[in-house]
Batch of 3 targets.
Target 1
Amino acid sequence: MALTNEVEAMGDMFTRMNRRCYDKCLANAIAEGRDYGEELSIDEDKCMVACASKFVATQQKVGEIFMQEAQAAGN
């Protein structure tokens, strides 16, 4: 059961990251007619990498804070 919850949480995190980074880095280009089949421009690629890295780092930090608070509440 715990593994299922963890897999679901990871899937949810990936979906949120995908949406957020898409909106930030690609949505305007798609709206302007850029074809999905094209490769990302250098700037789009850099934006996606930076966005995903920042999102994951933020999620890790939030997780650390929750763990610290849970440990403090358990003491």
Note: DSSP finds three helices and no strands in the chain.
Target 2
Amino acid sequence: MELILPEQCYISGCVTTTEQLLDFASLGSYVEFDLFGWEVSNYQMSPDIDFLSDAQRIAFFQDLLAEGYEDKMVMSHDIHRKCQLMKYGGHGFSHILLNVIPKMLRKGITQNQIDKITIQNPRRWLTFEQSKSKL
């Protein structure tokens, strides 16, 4: 049986408190927030969970950054239906670039941190490269 390393795991919108988020991050796993652009409170997969807004996801990013987890953060939008495309009235593939990143900058997240979250960390995670702190 092949074991999965904690650094290869991620968590998404099921975390609802900063305490849960930091507990998970302390395991060394990647923390990933997806579904950017979904601005509804009803989470159909689990009605007991309130769906996060983009602003709440960004606030969680700020909490993680304040605790030093910038090397373990990634994000995505999870577009998988035609109605999510801009052509059909959705927020589209460009939502993170056009709306979320500018809001992150306005909230004090630096361009260097954004580059880690959107470029460097996904590159490292998707190639299963171990962090330098573990070498």
Note: Residues 111-126 form the longest helix (16 residues).
Target 3
Amino acid sequence: WYQRRVRGEQSVTLVLPRMYMNVGRGCVLVGMLMVLHAGLGSAHHRANLRLSEQPYDGLPVDITAQCVIGFVIACFGISKVAGEFKDISATNDLNRKTLDSITNVPSFYHFAHRGRSLHSIIYS
């Protein structure tokens, strides 16, 4: 929460988007650190297996769980940092536009073409 004075009056405004973005950034940082730590743990596990000449049967459950949990936390944080999602269907955006504004593309206008020279030849 923070207070802001507006023409002599006090108003209280909730700062949720900024707070959610900071929480999201923190989640991304924690998730990435967890995935990095799981990667280092798996490299350490493989090195210990090679030194003890044991066969590789896969990663321990704690390293796999740490990697998956870190990934989920990082994905949650990224979704909070990204902001509002747009609708997948384009119909919501297209319903607000007219057909003339949809088909009107000014970048396709070309005025320097051979029709100008043909016009001068035909009508001279």
Note: The two ends are 76 Å apart (CA to CA).
